[in-house]
Amino acid sequence: MPHHPTYSPLYQQIYTTLLMWINSGRWKLNQKLPSEPDLALELNVSTGTIRKALDQLSNEKVVIRKQGKGTYLNELNVETNLFLYFKFYDLVGKRIHPTSKFISKKTTSLGNNLAKHFNAKPNEQALTITRLRLNNNVPLIYETITLPFSIYGPSIEREEIPNTLYQFLQKKYFVTIQKAHETISIESPTPEIVKLLAIKPSCQLLKIVRNAEDLKGRIVEHRVTFANTSLAQYKITLG
Of 39, 110, 147, 194, which has the fewest Cβ atoms less than 10 A away? Predict the structure, then answer.
C-alpha cells in the first residue's frame, strides 16, 4: 500500500489505494469488486475501514453498492449521466432530458486562458465542440466544450460525439468524470447565441463555466454553458 501522510485517516488511505487500483484497470466497468472481508484481508485492515472507503467511493458514484449482491464498478448510463451532471428542469419542476444539435467541431489551440485549466501549454491542441441542448426541439442551451488532445489524442476529432458525452468518454477513452467544478454568473448573449437560441439581444442568460475532473484528479473537460432561464431552471441540492 502506498505511503500516505500520517494525518490522513486510515479509511482515506484505503480509499486512495482502491481508487489507484480502479485507475490502473484492475477491475472492468460493471465488474463486481472483491468482498469487504477479502479486501480487508488483502490490505490488512478491518472490514469497517473497507466499508467506509467503499462508502466514499459510492457517494462519488465511482462504485455501486447493491444490497445482498456486493459492490460493482460503476458505468455511467444515460440516466446516471443526466442525473449527476445535467441539473436543468422545466418551469414546472420536471427534469429535462435534452437532445443535442451540433453546430461545429474543430481543432483549436488552447491559448493562454484554457491552458491554465488543463495545466498545459497555450499552443497545445484540443477539440472544441459547439452545440445546442434542446427540450422538445426547443433550444434552451448553447455550450462550448473543450477536450484536450493531450488526454484524448487527435483522433477524437474524427469521432461521432453522442448526446451523452461523459458516458462516451468513459467507454471510449476510460475517462470517468468524478466531479465538476462550476462557476455561475449572468451575462448578455453574443449575436451568434441570440440567433441560435432565438432570443432577444436584451435577454440575460445564465452562464456556467465547468471544469470536469476525472478519477486521477485531472481536468479533462472545460465547458461554457449559456442557458435561457425563461424556459428552464438550474437546480442543485446542497448538503
Answer: 194
Nearest CA to 135 out of 195, 202, 190, 197 is that of: 197
Helix axes 47-59, 10-23, angle to 10 degrees: 60
- In angstroms, the CA 22 to CA 29 distance is 9
Check: CB of residue 83 under 8 Å from CB of residue 97.
no
Evaluate whether 141 touches 147 at the Cβ level (below 8 Å): no
| Residue that the C-alpha cell 484497470 belongs to | 25
Q: Could you give the 3-state DSSP secondary structure of residue 201?
A: coil
Reading the block at residue 84, the C-alpha cell is 449527476
Torsion from C-alpha of 199, 205, 209, 214, nearest 10 degrees: -70
Q: How many helices (H) and strands (E) does the chain have?
A: 8, 10
What is the rounded distance in angstroms from the CA atom of residue 103 to the CA atom of residue 138?
15
- What's the pLDDT at 171? 83
What pLDDT is stored for residue 115 in this prediction? 94
End-to-end CA separation in angstroms for the chain: 32
Residue pair 160/197 in contact (Cβ under 8 Å)? The answer is: no
pLDDT at 209: 97
Beta bridge partners of 233: 89
DSSP state of 34: P
pLDDT of residue 6: 46
**Separation of CA 100 from chain center:** 17
